[in-house]
Design the sequence.
């Protein structure tokens, strides 16, 4: 892969730093629960269809007492989009060359009262340069206070940059994280944004604040709920809900499609799938 320019290297370094902060916090939660679970990291390399070095990434997975399965992946890849797929990507219709770096996280929890969560932020370069990503809360058994906390923290991060961001990006998440064939939302929402381009410094600062907001709110919610008692019926409800989550990620999720179409690591791409799910 070509040597990274300053913006590419800056974004890559932040996503790796954010990964380290999040994983350390999640391991701390496991220790508080009396578990010695830690992340296992597996590096992978990507070969571009041309045969050239296409970059790669690191897949991190932890299975513990609180986090039944959590994956935190970072990747930095580049090359050229293959076939017609490039025409669907912002700025790649005429020139299929691309660069992408980002962090992707999905946590499935052991206690059904603790919400699952997704967070992803990324920086892409084609003939254009932009940031995208977001975070959304996915509780099998929703708690209004947790939903309010999660949204309030994200709103504060958005308002620091533009008061129009939160309502715009909240609606984008509501529209995106929806399962048409079930006619239900995947969870209780959050924010989603894409194609944030123009001022690198401003858009990078916002993307950093999204990551920091996630690190602020989600561990707090986990600590508040991880000791709650639950029943077999709660577990059954959680596993059925997880089936809906899997359906969205396999059928509609753009990040899953991007990873598969660009030759990413299969295990890293599909780490978002829950460890156990049921369908009625």
Sequence:
């Amino acid at each position: 892969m070509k040597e990274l320019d300053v913006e590419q290297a800056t974004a890559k370094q932040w996503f790796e730093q954010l990964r380290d902060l999040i994983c350390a916090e999640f391991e701390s939660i496991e220790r508080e629960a009396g578990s010695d679970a830690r992340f296992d990291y597996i590096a992978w390399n990507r070969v571009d269809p041309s045969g050239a070095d296409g970059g790669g990434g690191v897949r991190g997975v932890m299975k513990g007492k609180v986090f039944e399965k959590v994956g935190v992946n970072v990747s930095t890849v580049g090359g050229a989009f293959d076939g017609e797929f490039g025409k669907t990507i912002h700025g790649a219709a005429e020139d299929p060359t691309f660069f992408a770096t980002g962090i992707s996280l999905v946590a499935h929890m052991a206690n059904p009262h603790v919400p699952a969560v997704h967070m992803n932020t990324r920086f892409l370069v084609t003939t254009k340069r932009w940031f995208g990503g977001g975070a959304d809360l996915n509780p099998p058994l929703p708690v209004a206070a947790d939903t309010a906390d999660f949204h309030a923290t994200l709103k504060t991060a958005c308002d620091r940059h533009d008061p129009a961001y939160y309502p715009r990006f909240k609606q984008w998440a509501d529209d995106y994280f929806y399962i048409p064939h079930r006619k239900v939302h995947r969870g209780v929402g959050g924010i989603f944004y894409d194609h944030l381009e123009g001022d690198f410094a401003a858009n990078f600062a916002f993307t950093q604040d999204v990551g920091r907001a996630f690190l602020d709110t989600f561990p707090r919610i986990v600590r508040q709920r991880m000791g709650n008692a639950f029943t077999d019926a709660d577990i059954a409800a959680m596993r059925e809900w997880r089936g809906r989550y899997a359906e969205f990620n396999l059928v509609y999720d753009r990040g899953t499609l991007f990873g598969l179409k660009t030759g990413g690591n299969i295990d890293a791409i599909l780490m978002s799938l829950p460890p156990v799910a049921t369908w009625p």
Q: What stands out?
A: DSSP finds seven helices and nine strands in the chain. The two ends are 46 Å apart (CA to CA). The chain has one domain: 6-272.
